[in-house]
């Protein structure tokens, strides 16, 4: 991976910085290529293509790992750190240093072992879930817990290994802060959901009953994406088995899936993915290839999807706006905007599945996973005891006990990838979404009116200005404080759910 | 690009050979990734994605160039060449040596200059063709001719530079042999086309008149692909502005395009691309990543597409078979199989465009390009004189003189890419197709009957056995001799066109 530049980084900071950004641009290009290959694998690749694709992805991953961990990267970082840099340049060096240190700390063999164990674990997990047989998956989960502990130890043997793992997904937000937010969610939501279950409020739940043709749902998703401001010159919508967003500021694509009995599922997931894509498409184009042109990490990314899904897409104002669009495809929908709004916000009584959860119970699903994976990594819980721990917590926090592990601890794919520390970012993103939206609401003259009128320009501008254009220039807390004037915390979320669900379910204000 | 293997290639041939194939597998993976990115760019990428995609493609290209030309490749080749190898291993080393030498001979700056000049030339060519203004394109063509001469000189200063350039597309077939075949085509076809123009034979030309809906044409293309034996588990059909095939033995995709006034265009192009894809899908899967799992070069590849397009797809037997399938989508087609066959084989009186040419005039389009590009590279023709030379040759060989350069020397994209030496492979492939098909016909009990019955299994097997399974194990001439028992030459083609077009146009047997 030699370049043509001067190989003596000492000769000048400007040279070193330029060579570093060249290297980063190459690295981004290789990672971007992997992204396209993954998108293709999930959306367009014929099934039989797997062997070649697996090889291509694993080689690209090792090429980018070599580019990042090459000694030359360290030399360039050293040269840059000892010199005068602008604030933007400092941010590039800071982000690269962090990524370099992590990547260089972990031996290649361990990375490969995690990767090959995950591949096998994925198959075992699929089989286990299919057959409702946790035993099939357990040995792989044990291996992954062990391997990920070792991985964390390679990075920093002196810290809580779970905190180290968490940084793979959220590198610049202290775990203690995340934990405090999750604790607040639990304390707020467990009693609130209890009270909702006892509420006599007459909340409409059946505004969307019947059969909803997939092609018409797709047309609706396209209409809504256009309406929200999705830039089709730089994006596309496809179908995949799990909705996701993939791409950069030039080409960022969303996917969804259609269930003919549940049009809200695809609609809300499309709005969610729009938020992810709108973030990526708002990253500065002229900074493509360095951290200044890349998104902040997973909590911030999820805040963008959740803001559009929940603060916009599940608001009463949005339903007044969108219902006529829904009726263009589905003229038989005769619910009022208020009824549609209530249906889109109903709190489910007996849902055990995270991805089908409402805005409130969702976070208890996350808290349960967080508590279990923390205990697993800490060695306080054996893999064999996961199903019972899972079921006990569901009973304790949600008043529900899964009958099977398939609808219990086998429901999510994440642990089969060895992704311990990922789940919390889902809740953190939702919480941050409320804080950002309140700040936008303060700055924008009549945001609710805008949403009611389908005028999203001011909100677009606010997000571009306060979040997107910065790329990864600021660490999470600084980004949040600059955008909202406050530290990142759960207050806005608590206020939001109390007000919204207090109204919907006639709750006592003291809850 | 260090690997974990022993860095002293002297330690053992087995080690060196294994390390070499590891390296080749990585190289193939990176090149395959580029292929997926190109496919995506032409088929699915939103227009605005270009800047990121260009960067990704150029970085992958430099990564694969570095992998190939790394000193370690040379060390491993040296170690392998001095040792006992099996025939297959020898072929891997031979192919890699050739690629290595070419890639290592050309300085990176020259490769980049050619690449950036081509990018600009492409834009200039598009503009020139649009405005029928050769002057816009001329300076870029001059630069490309100059750069490609320099490129050839870097590879071998002692040989005809055109012969060196030709090897980029057809590395193991002497140019003299190619030239002999092209001369035979010219000598055979110029008088034959003359006689056809004077023939009174009543050949049907209008079996497919009217408007043919694009969606129904697509359904027909899918039906025909299925019918020919395309393996949808490992492939897909999409639309792109120029039809192409892309992929490997696990995932090989075809594209086509639809013209609502010309259903034959898409149908024949689909059959053509099927031939390319069927070749790639027949390469040995267990050899994926080395030359043994890669196709022989462009003439052989084109022989596979042309065999299906011309020998199968333009035969009377095939039209008896396929017409009912056509009628399923287009019940208004009331031509007989014989009339459809004649329409699909009519020799156009006034077509100036290569990609719309029939099976005979096609080769004169190629011969003209071959003669002009040879003269350009030799310095015997100035770029400024290309339009007149082009028009004169069209008049001499085809009796037609283009009115504009847009339908003359600006019609093809190839020169704007600097691809001098590519065109001949189109004719060579068509010629080889006839020789291979005759050999298959000798070996198969009733090939014509099989085609009439839509039974392609014996032909599949013959091509798999005699061509596909060998990958690049044999050089072109050896592959052809092994498959057909004869040296590669134009005799079968001459016999084929004399018989077929003699019948169609009642030609004198002496022609």
Automatic annotation (TrEMBL), chains A, B:
Give the matching SUPFAM superfamilies. Answer: Metalloproteases ('zincins'), catalytic domain
Catalytic residues, chain numbering: 273
A Gene Ontology molecular function term of the record: metal ion binding
- Its biological function? Broad specificity carboxypetidase that releases amino acids sequentially from the C-terminus, including neutral, aromatic, polar and basic residues.
Could you tell me which Gene3D superfamilies the record lists for this protein? Answer: 1.10.1370.30
> Any idea what this protein is called?
Metal-dependent carboxypeptidase
Q: Which domain of life is it from?
A: Archaea
Listed EC numbers: 3.4.17.19
**Where, by residue number, does Zn(2+) bind?**
272, 276, 302
Task: Say which family it is in.
Answer: Belongs to the peptidase M32 family.
Species this chain originates from: Candidatus Halobonum tyrrellensis G22
**Co-factor(s):** Zn(2+)
Q: Metal-binding: is it a keyword of this entry?
A: yes
């Amino acid at each position: 991976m030699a370049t043509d530049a001067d190989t003596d980084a000492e000769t000048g900071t400007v040279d070193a910085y330029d060579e570093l950004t060249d290297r980063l641009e190459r690295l981004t290009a290789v990672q971007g290529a992997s992204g396209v290959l993954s998108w293709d694998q999930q959306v367009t690749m014929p099934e039989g293509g797997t062997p070649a694709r697996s090889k291509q992805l694993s080689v690209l991953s090792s090429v980018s790992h070599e580019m990042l961990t090459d000694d030359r990267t360290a030399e360039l970082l050293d040269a840059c750190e000892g010199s005068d840099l602008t604030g933007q340049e400092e941010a590039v060096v800071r982000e690269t240093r962090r990524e370099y240190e992590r990547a260089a700390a972990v031996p290649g063999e361990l990375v490969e072992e995690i990767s090959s164990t995950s591949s096998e674990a994925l198959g075992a997990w699929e089989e286990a879930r299919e057959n409702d047989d946790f035993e099939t998956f357990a040995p792989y989960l044990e291996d992954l817990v062990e391997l990920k502990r070792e991985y964390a130890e390679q990075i920093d043997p002196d810290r809580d290994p779970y905190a180290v793992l968490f940084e793979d997904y959220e590198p610049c937000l202290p775990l203690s802060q995340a934990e405090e937010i999750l604790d607040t969610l639990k304390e707020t939501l467990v009693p609130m959901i209890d009270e909702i279950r006892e509420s006599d409020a007459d909340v409409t739940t059946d505004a969307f009953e019947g059969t909803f043709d997939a092609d018409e749902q797709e047309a609706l998703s396209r209409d809504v994406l256009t309406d929200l401001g999705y830039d089709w010159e730089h994006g596309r919508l496809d179908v995949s088995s799990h909705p996701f967003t993939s791409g950069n500021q030039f080409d960022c694509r969303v996917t969804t899936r259609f269930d003919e009995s549940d049009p809200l599922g695809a609609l809300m997931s499309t709005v969610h993915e729009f938020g992810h894509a709108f973030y990526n498409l708002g990253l500065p184009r002229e900074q493509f290839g360095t951290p200044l042109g890349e998104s902040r990490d997973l909590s911030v990314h999820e805040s963008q999807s959740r803001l559009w899904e929940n603060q916009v897409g599940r608001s009463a104002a949005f339903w007044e706006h969108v219902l006529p669009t829904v009726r263009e495809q589905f003229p038989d929908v005769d619910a009022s905007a208020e009824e549609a709004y209530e249906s889109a916000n109903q709190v489910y009584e007996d849902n055990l599945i995270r991805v089908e959860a409402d805005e409130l119970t969702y976070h208890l699903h996350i808290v349960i996973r967080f508590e279990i994976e923390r205990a697993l990594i800490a060695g306080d819980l054996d893999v064999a005891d996961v199903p019972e721990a899972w079921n006990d917590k569901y009973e304790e926090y949600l008043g529900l006990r899964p009958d099977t592990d398939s609808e219990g601890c086998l429901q999510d794919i994440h642990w089969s990838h060895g992704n311990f520390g990922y789940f919390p970012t889902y809740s953190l993103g939702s919480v941050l979404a409320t804080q950002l939206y309140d700040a936008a609401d303060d700055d924008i003259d009549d945001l609710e009116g805008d949403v009611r009128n389908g005028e999203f320009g001011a909100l677009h501008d606010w997000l571009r200005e306060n979040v997107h254009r910065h790329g990864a220039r600021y660490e999470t807390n600084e980004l949040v404080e600059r955008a909202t004037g406050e530290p990142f915390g759960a207050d806005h979320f608590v206020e939001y759910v109390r007000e919204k669900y207090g109204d919907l379910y006639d709750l006592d204000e003291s809850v």
